[in-house]
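Working notes for the structural subgroup meeting. M.R. asked for a predicted model of this chain before we commit to crystallization trials. I am recording the input and output together here so anyone reviewing the notebook later can reproduce the run.

Input as submitted:
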Amino acid sequence: MTTRRIKNRMLWITTIGSMLLIPLALSASVQPEGRRGFRGGHDGRGGPGAILRELDLSDSQREQMGALREQGSSRETMERLMERRQALNEAVENGADEGTLRQLAFESGEAEGDAAVERARVHRQMMEILTAEQREKYQALKQEQKQKMEERRQRFQERMENRRNRKPDAF
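Returned structure, recorded in token form:
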């Protein structure tokens, strides 16, 4: 696999992952209190919900986060985005003409922009619910999470480089 294909694949994975961050954060925010760590929780999943659990939200804050999660516009925006991406992928696989592909790509990009605006809106509302101390802790935990992600990315790149440099007969 070429470096360009790997980068494109990583970009898609990152994009899809980022699309899921806010809904996951909000759905996990109504979990019981308690420190479980980034990998903790009832089912062992990490993610933004794990960060919110670290903030020891009050009952009122959990209710407000739940109300944000229940807002239909976020769900509708995400569904539209996934539908546009699926339509584009199917068109590519079915050999659609360039005009159709460009139109579907434009619609997909428009849905991507709408989803980004929606994520920003929800994030802003989520930050307004948190106290100053919780926001500070949230930022520190996000930075820690980013650092861990970067370390994993670097380890992955090293493994890929080692595989490329290996002799074909060396197993």
